[in-house]
Amino acid sequence: MNKPLTRLLPLALVALFLLGGLLPSLTSCQRQTTSSKGVKDSLNALLADSMIYQRKKLHNPEALMALIDSLEEVGIIGVIQANYERGYVCKDQGQQRQSENYWKKAVNGEIRNRAEERAFFLASAMLTNLYQVNHNFEAALRQSIKTLNKMKQSDLVKPRLIGVQLSDIGICQLKMRRYEEAGKSFSEAYHYFLKGIPTDTTYLTYENSLACVNNSTLFYLDAKLYDNAILMIARLDTLLAMYKDSPYCRQKYYDAQYARRCNFMARALLGQGNKEEANKQFDIYQSTECYKSGREHAPGEYLMAAHRYAEATEAYADIEDQIRKRVGKPSLDIIQQYLFPKFRANAGAGYKDSALAVGLRIFYYLDSAIVWQKQDDAAELATIYETQEKDRHIAEQEVTLSKQRYSAMAILFALIVLALAIFIFFRHRAAKRLEVAHKELKVAYDQLQETTAVKERIQSELRIARDIQMSMVPHEFPQRKGLDMYGSMTPAKEVGGDLYGYIQQGNNLYFCIGDVSGKGVPASLFMAQATRLFRTLASQGMKPADICTQMNDALSGEDNVSGMFVTFFLGLIDLTTGHLAFCNAGHNPPVIGGGEHRGDFLKMESNAPIGLWPGLQFVGEEIDTIMNRPLFLYTDGLNEAENHELKQFGEDQMLAFLRKGEFKDSRDVIERMAAEVERHRDGAEPNDDLTMMCMKVTNG
Predict the structure, then answer these.
(1) Which of 143, 505, 543, 560 has the fewest Cβ atoms within 10 angstroms?
(2) Contact by Cβ (8 Å): 557, 521
């Protein structure tokens, strides 16, 4: 067997897990509450994204293409998503024509599920951007309008994404000199941005809105429509004020957008003939932190328009460094974007020698760009021809195989009929008895063989699912002086519903532990959703109680038709002071050390579990410091662990073990507690998932 096929065997097993009937058998008792197709599609999307992401990190386009082909062949991803990913691989290789070919296939495919709908929007956005880069604004406009119509019909798309799409449409119309239509598109986009801000709990709506309005202003300036540019800047001022007052404001991003705003206002006022006010705005632009720190390099356009050529030459002084840092090989875009402005600035300032040097540099880049363009075109055409030839060859093989199968079936059918006629003629009665016995034996054998194969396949595929789930929880912990932290999870079945995790942001450490109701694949999917929400909300610096409230709103919605929930404990430690803020959502109370490190349960309020009822406001609590006090968290798989006589391990035994033990560190606590539970079970099968986490903050 060749090596590529050998490497794809695990992928084939995963595909069988998703498509071969495992999920229907596991969810047959929940068909009225959970859609097996929805579960399978969600798991497919999760697996595909993970495998493609891991393969992309290897920077091996041939291997990535082979993986995408395999995922499509076994049905983990559909045609739309496969062609979108292929187009993205070609884009990274600079193969624009091949990218366009794949993305066209993607946007013309039939959408069958949420994953393909998302892939359609992504492919459409990439195709539109490609058309715009190539100045084919008519094609970009057609594709953008087609995408916009689908967006407005989908409940998957947020208002901010519709606003981004309308901004793309407006830019295309502006480039095609359809100014009135462009103004309407920009106004509608602004309406969707304002509509999306109150409903979005992240920074994305603000920053997408600011970027789109800034870009629209730039295109108006390039078209010398200065009145329209000032109207867009007024909208930009409104969005900047809202963004600055929001809890999601990132100062560096705000500074960059404000700097661009001042630069654009200076250019617009100069275009209107108001040179004095324009210079004031440009002075404000140069006084911004973004400009001073070197993160904003765009003063050249204004200086050239104001005939301040000597200053413009200084703005373009480091243009060669920018070319070396940002550009791989020479192209016509480099000449137009970098070298032409520098040449005009030097010529306008009267620096003849410098202008001549830049002119020679332009000739050098022009010659190299033509050579590279010819090489790229030839290589890309060869790739396209090779792909087309491959598709044609595959189609011919399929036709030939179909003909061979039909011929073989016809011959086989004729032989069976002839043999059956002879057999009936000579052994009519004996044949009847033999036929009945043969059928019964064949049915029994097939059932036995099928049962054995399914059992082996289920065991193998559940092991794969367990490995995927275990990859979702951390196995490495912060290596920081003054922090000792460790955790582990052992599912009772191949896959389970326990979870734990952490996110460190500077001196702040978020951590959580939870237990999803139920067992098996549904619990593991609910656990994956809870883990994703914790990471997303904690990364925004929210308080534990607010995180639990938003997680509850997300998990207790209409999609939670099965009524699943998760008990959850979430904490936030200031690693410099030991201050602990936490929220307990129906979970077992942690054990905290005190005095002579004598452990006892943490006294606290207990909220309802997450996912039961929408609209709950969770209550958080605080402890001034837990410095030098170990904190031990666990799920009920610890205290409810049973032996053969169904006797539970119990909270008293757990406390006694923690109090009397002399432990080296948090890992020693976890490992020795796990061994103690195993001794208590005495060979009995675990009745629940076992998850533990231990940490201790010291003065360093």
Answers:
(1) 505
(2) no
* The two structure tokens encoding residue 685: 């099968």
Residue 163 token pair: 């606003």
Q: Percentage of the chain with pLDDT > 90? A: 31
Length of the chain: 700
Helix ranges restricted to H, 134-176: 137-153, 159-175
Taking the C-alpha atoms of residue 514 and residue 637, their distance in angstroms, rounded to an integer, is 11
Structure tokens at 561: 């038709």
Residue 89 one-letter amino acid: V
Specify the DSSP class assigned to residue 511: E
Q: What is the pLDDT of residue 434?
A: 72
Closest CA to 36 of 15, 22, 50, 16: 22
Nearest of 240, 243, 131, 235 to residue 183 by alpha carbon: 235
| Pair 686, 637: CB distance under 8 Å | yes
Show Cβ contacts of residue 120 under 8 Å, excluding neighbours closer than 6 positions. 80, 84, 106, 107, 109, 111, 147, 150
Report which residue type is found at 17.
F
Q: Is the pLDDT of residue 26 over 50?
A: no
Cβ atoms of 102 and 108 within 8 Å: the answer is: no
Task: Show Cβ contacts of residue 506 under 8 Å, excluding neighbours closer than 6 positions.
Answer: none
Give the span between the Cα atoms of 44 and 692, in whole angstroms. Answer: 29
Helices H / strands E in the chain, number of each: 28, 10
- Strand, coil or helix: 514: strand
Give the C-alpha separation, 381 to 98, whole Å: 8
Q: How far is CA 333 from CA 234, 340, 366, 385, in A?
A: 31, 10, 10, 27
Nearest alpha-carbon partner for 38 in 104, 92, 113, 90: 113
Q: Are 63 and 79 in contact, with CB atoms under 8 Å apart?
A: no
Strand-strand pairing, 498-505 and 690-697: unpaired
Which helix (H) or strand (E) is 584 found in, with range? strand 580-585
pTM above 0.90, yes or no: no
Give the tens place of pLDDT for each residue, 262-314. 989 988 998 899 989 989 988 888 888 888 776 555 677 777 777 776 776 66
Using CA atoms, how far apart are residues 368 and 342, in angstroms rounded to an integer? 19
End-to-end, the C-alpha distance of the chain in Å comes to 56
- Kindly report, residue by residue over 592-620, the tens digit of the pLDDT: 986 455 789 998 888 999 998 889 999 99
Confidence class for position 3, pLDDT limits 50, 70, 90:
very low
Q: Which residues pair with 485 in a beta bridge?
A: 695
Please give the single-letter amino acid code of residue 84: Y
